[in-house]
Design brief:
Length: 284
């Protein structure tokens, strides 16, 4: 098994597992973080099929790998595989950061929500306390984001989804953590939110969730958890319809990576220079 990972034994080895993962910025981000502390490491992006996920994580650990980032579509599989979970990962059913002990026990945490909150608050100076927040979508990306946002004591969070039942399940599961509501897109009339977060996968099909232009005009910020070289379809649409601030998920990506780096190395990297470097050089 160890042969599947010809790791560089002169340094510590890390990787991101996803499918697809070819365009991942994580190797560049972690190499930039490592430079800040003169840490030598090797970081790979490895495409793993869901059926191979468990075997591949274990093979990486056996070969001496130190830590993994987990991205789409493996975060729930990672949650199921971990022997020891942080309370947050356990509550969210989602793991994006893995590490091992000497007995090769697998540890898991999720830093996605903290990454979003750090990006909003530290990089964009957006206060979350007492805000009305709208989350679009109710898929697997939502629970970590929801929990971390609720920790900042917003007035309320509304989850809107095409399939209302999925939003209702999330509200039922997490209602003990704050003021949560579920609704369908046709129930948003006359409702206004300071912060609108797109957590749908609509952009992957070039689509935009069916929101009214009125709702974005009254918002303080529209945020897309996704990022791409061009503005995402949602942010393009929000900008065209009068949103005062449009933010994509690149900052969140760097911030969640910084939290993961801190778990592995016990050092919190500086992020703003890394966000600028990644933005400036799309091929990094
Ligand atoms: P995952 O769990 O991996 O995040 P998912 O369960 O497919 O993926 O979730 C994708 C989310 O994007 C869902 O909330 C989906 O809405 P439905 O639950 O109603 O399917 C949402 N979504 C996808 N395409 C959309 C579109 N064109 N407009 C609005 N919402 C969309």
């Amino acid at each position: 098994m160890a042969n599947s990972f010809p790791l560089d034994n002169t340094v510590e080895n890390f990787a991101v597992f996803g499918n697809p993962v070819k365009h991942s910025r994580s190797p560049s981000i972690h190499n930039l973080f490592a430079k800040q502390f003169a840490i030598q490491l090797h970081y790979d992006a490895i495409d793993v099929q869901p059926e191979q996920f468990e075997k591949t994580v274990k093979a990486f650990a056996v070969a001496g790998g130190k830590g993994l980032n987990i991205t789409v579509p493996h975060k729930e599989l990672a949650f199921k595989l971990c022997d020891i979970l942080t309370p947050l990962a356990k509550t969210c059913h989602s793991v994006n950061t893995i590490w091992f002990d000497d007995e090769l026990n697998i540890y898991g945490d999720t830093t996605d929500g903290e990454g979003l909150v750090r990006d909003l608050q530290n990089n964009h100076e957006i206060k979350l306390v007492n805000k009305r927040i709208l989350i679009l979508g109710a898929g697997g990306t939502v629970p970590p984001v929801l929990l971390s946002l609720l920790q900042q004591k917003p007035e309320s969070i509304t989850i809107v989804n095409r399939t209302l039942a999925k939003a209702e399940v999330l509200v039922e599961r997490y209602k003990g953590y704050g003021t949560l509501m579920a609704c369908g897109y046709d129930q948003l009339e006359q409702q206004y939110f300071e912060i609108i977060i797109n957590a749908t996968s609509a952009s992957l099909q070039g689509d935009v969730p069916p929101l009214s232009a009125d709702i974005v005009r009254h918002s303080e910020c529209c945020y897309d958890l996704m990022y791409s070289k061009e503005a995402t379809p949602f942010l393009k649409w929000a900008d065209n319809n009068g949103s005062s601030l449009c933010i994509d998920g690149l900052g969140m990506l760097v911030e969640q990576a910084a939290c993961g780096f801190n778990i592995w190395h016990g050092k919190m990297p500086e992020t703003s220079s890394v966000i600028s470097a990644i933005k400036a050089n799309n091929s990094l």
